[in-house]
């Protein structure tokens, strides 16, 4: 009997995927608008028609469009195979740290456990620690029989530390790693494999950062799903369209010369966001590698969460000021960076209209929150379902197990935006009034 030839998967060009996703998303939004006519009319009687449209647009139309675009993109996404799964080239890891005495030894242990076949140069930049971070790092390295280079940077600011560290880099590629972030044993290998398998105009690849301390409390359980589904899905979408918007400092790889070419990390609270957008503005591309997994500790209290996410929101505004979407050379990155102009609008509407509307609905006043607002949920669940299946396959490849965390998932799906929107608005306020920056 003749062996049946394996059918090759149908190749869909990125540009076609982009427009197919747009077509579906616009169709979904038009359908939503059609169904919402009675809602708009009833709300207009209270607030006037323009205000009603402003509110419903931020609650339903725009989020529905973005969710639909995400769903089709995730369905069409196919991660290309590695050209070389076991790269054998030197790589440097920069760890900028401040008062990380409790975590740094563990971080070094996980670097030591990497299955990478070539030299890993570890450069630790102590950015004005008042504890014994550097001493503990050197002691841990000696116990692990690994060499690390410790340097000191007294100027406060993560960007100062990283720019000091890159002066010591001798390899073509460098990885930035947060001092409290632990690497999966294959993380460095997969991250290097992706960047050397990518086209030559790819200058950075973001790793996949997941939550390590998810069992700590309900706050961390909710964030586990944000990292596992929310952030990962956005990065997959952006990676497909060759414009991952944040090669996050917590765990990403860069071409050393590319970073030097744009004068290193900028003086910004979101230095990794601004750096990435500068890459994109030069016509370079930034990818995402879901198999390069690292685990980080997330905030355990609402206060710490507010500090972190408001800083992220503030970093996005900084990036918009320094790198305008219309200055981006590619249509994909024009679109992806342009979406960030919409985020403050949605966060403001959610904070000042949806949340009060939710309270009113509890007393039987369904002016803003009612049955029509539930129309966004089906696409949300579909997108999470698609990504969950994909992430499960990633975990299988890495011999990891997806933890059952139903309470966190339910709260993430139904309530997470209630916390995120006001926190983001606070970040926009901080940047508008130029409030004091803080790294930690």
Automatic annotation (TrEMBL):
Statement: the UniProt record of this protein carries the keyword Ribosomal protein: no
One Pfam family this sequence matches: Glycos_transf_2
Gene Ontology molecular function: any one: glycosyltransferase activity
Parts of the chain that traverse the membrane: 20-40, 46-76, 331-353, 365-387, 408-429
Domain Glycosyltransferase 2-like: 92-262
Residue ranges that the Swiss-Prot or TrEMBL entry lists as coiled coil: none
Keywords: Glycosyltransferase, Membrane, Transferase, Transmembrane, Transmembrane helix
Domain of life: Bacteria
Protein family (similarity comment): Belongs to the glycosyltransferase 2 family.
Protein name from the UniProt record: Family 2 glycosyl transferase
């Amino acid at each position: 009997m003749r062996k049946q030839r394996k059918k090759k998967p149908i190749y869909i060009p990125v540009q076609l995927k982009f427009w197919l996703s747009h077509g579906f998303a616009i169709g979904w939004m038009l359908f939503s608008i059609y169904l919402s006519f009675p809602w708009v009319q009833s709300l207009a009687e209270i607030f006037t028609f323009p205000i009603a449209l402003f509110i419903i647009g931020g609650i339903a139309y725009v989020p529905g469009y973005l969710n639909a675009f995400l769903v089709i993109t995730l369905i069409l996404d196919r991660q290309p195979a590695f050209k070389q799964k076991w790269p054998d080239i030197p790589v440097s890891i920069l760890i900028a740290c401040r008062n990380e005495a409790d975590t740094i030894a563990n971080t070094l242990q996980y670097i030591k456990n990497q299955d990478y076949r070539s030299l890993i140069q570890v450069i630790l930049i102590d950015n004005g620690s008042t504890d014994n971070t550097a001493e503990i790092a050197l002691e841990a390295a000696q116990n692990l029989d690994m060499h690390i280079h410790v340097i000191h940077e007294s100027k406060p600011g993560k960007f100062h530390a990283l720019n000091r560290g890159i002066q010591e880099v001798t390899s073509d590629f460098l990885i930035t790693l947060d001092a409290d972030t632990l690497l999966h044993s294959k993380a460095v290998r997969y991250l290097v494999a992706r960047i050397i398998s990518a086209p030559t105009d790819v200058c950075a690849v973001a790793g996949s950062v997941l939550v390590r301390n998810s069992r700590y409390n309900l706050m961390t359980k909710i964030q586990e799903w944000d990292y596992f589904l929310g952030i990962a899905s956005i990065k997959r979408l952006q990676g497909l369209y060759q414009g991952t918007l944040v090669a996050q400092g917590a765990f990403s790889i860069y071409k050393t010369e590319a970073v030097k070419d744009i004068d290193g990390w900028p003086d910004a609270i979101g230095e990794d966001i601004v750096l990435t957008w500068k890459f994109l503005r030069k016509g370079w591309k930034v990818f995402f590698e879901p198999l390069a997994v690292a685990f980080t500790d997330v905030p355990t209290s609402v206060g710490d969460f507010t500090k972190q996410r408001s800083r992220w929101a503030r970093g996005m505004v900084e990036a918009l000021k320094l790198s305008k979407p219309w200055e981006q050379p590619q249509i994909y990155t024009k679109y992806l960076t342009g979406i960030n102009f919409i985020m403050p609008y949605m966060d403001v509407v959610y904070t000042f209209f949806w949340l009060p509307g939710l309270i009113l609905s509890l007393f039987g006043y369904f002016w803003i929150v009612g049955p029509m607002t539930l129309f966004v949920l089906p696409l949300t669940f579909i997108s999470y379902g698609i990504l969950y299946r994909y992430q499960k396959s990633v975990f299988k490849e890495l011999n990891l197990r997806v933890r059952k965390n139903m309470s966190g998932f339910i709260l993430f799906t139904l309530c997470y935006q209630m916390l995120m929107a006001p926190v983001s608005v606070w970040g926009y306020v901080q940047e508008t009034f130029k409030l004091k920056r803080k790294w930690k």
